[in-house]
Design the sequence.
């Protein structure tokens, strides 16, 4: 029994830093995308996000399955690193399966605070587009909401 508790405690200690590290990686990925956006024309940045060979595009197994998404402040998708088919769509009224208007929520968040985390449910491209809990870090930059999220 004692050995079982020791193994469980060790597993919990190992898992905690991984979760924190993953959020840190998502935030760092947004910062990396923002730095690219500062140094390049807007159209080049958006193509770097949506283009399948771009450094901010989803590539299963790399970047811990992270991708960048970019929206304007009215809910229009400017670039998406996993779902190129949504680029150009206005998703302002989109809600997750629980009815949470996540795009409106993160827009309000960045307008009030400049950046932060929001939790909702979304399709996970690494899991065959299965709907999963997601925590996304978003930042306001030049009238755009730039974000990346982790799936739980």
Sequence:
């Amino acid at each position: 029994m004692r050995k079982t508790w020791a193994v469980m405690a060790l597993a919990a200690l190992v898992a905690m830093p991984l979760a924190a590290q993953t959020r840190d990686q998502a935030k760092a990925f947004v910062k990396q995308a923002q730095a690219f956006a500062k140094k390049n024309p807007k159209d080049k940045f958006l193509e770097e996000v949506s283009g399948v060979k771009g450094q901010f595009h989803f590539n299963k197994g790399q970047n811990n399955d992270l991708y960048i998404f970019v929206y304007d402040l009215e809910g229009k998708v400017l670039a998406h690193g996993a779902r190129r088919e949504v680029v150009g769509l206005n998703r302002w009224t989109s809600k997750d399966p629980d009815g949470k208007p996540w795009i409106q929520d993160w827009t309000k968040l960045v307008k009030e605070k400049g950046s932060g985390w929001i939790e909702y449910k979304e399709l996970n491209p690494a899991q065959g587009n299965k709907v999963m809990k997601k925590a996304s870090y978003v930042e306001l930059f030049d009238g755009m909401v730039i974000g990346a999220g982790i799936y739980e």
The CA atoms of residues 69 and 80 lie 4 Å apart. Strands lie at 69-72, 77-80, 115-124, 130-141, 144-151. DSSP finds three helices and five strands in the chain. Helices lie at 2-39, 42-50, 102-113.
